[in-house]
Amino acid sequence: GDSVTQMEGPVTLSEEAFLTINCTYTATGYPSLFWYVQYPGEGLQLLLKATKADDKGSNKGFEATYRKETTSFHLEKGSVQVSDSAVYFCALYDYKLSFGAGTTVTVRA
Amino acid sequence: ETGVTQTPRHLVMGMTNKKSLKCEQHLGHNAMYWYKQSAKKPLELMFVYNFKEQTENNSVPSRFSPECPNSSHLFLHLHTLQPEDSALYLCASVGGGQLFFGSGTQLSVL
To answer: Which residues of chain A fall below pLDDT 50?
Structure first.
């Protein structure tokens, strides 16, 4: 069945550092791919998405490119802020949504 | 604000209590989900409702009883829970191929 594997955390960074969270997927069809973010005490919010190969999703300085050849959707941000501290979930949607385990990111001032 | 509202935000209950969690959306979506999020564990899909009909039950114990009276409302009735049921319970609705989540109910079972 469809599944998502993402980099295990926790990840701790200093402000203005570069962030990468790896995500790879397994799917039989042509899924849409998502990154969700969960800030402390909140539910999950959609951060960005890509619906087909080579699409790039971007939001709040975060980017991820749908790579069909490597079945990947890695999340990147060039310069993180303390406010980016959260749990990040990679997900795919084919006929249903499958989530990765989540990666906790802590950004220190 | 995602358009999905969950109440209460926090709930503490004893193992013999009966309580209910409520989820409401006015996004015009026809599919709603219950997820369980435990510390240091992946998100667990519990139930899926499409057009008020339950289409998925992921082997959830009967002490959790969902109810979907209409496409805008989803309930999770709780009865004789165990301490290991303490978790964040998230509701979501589906539209445009993506999920919209509520803020969750943080449940503690004593």
So the answer is: none
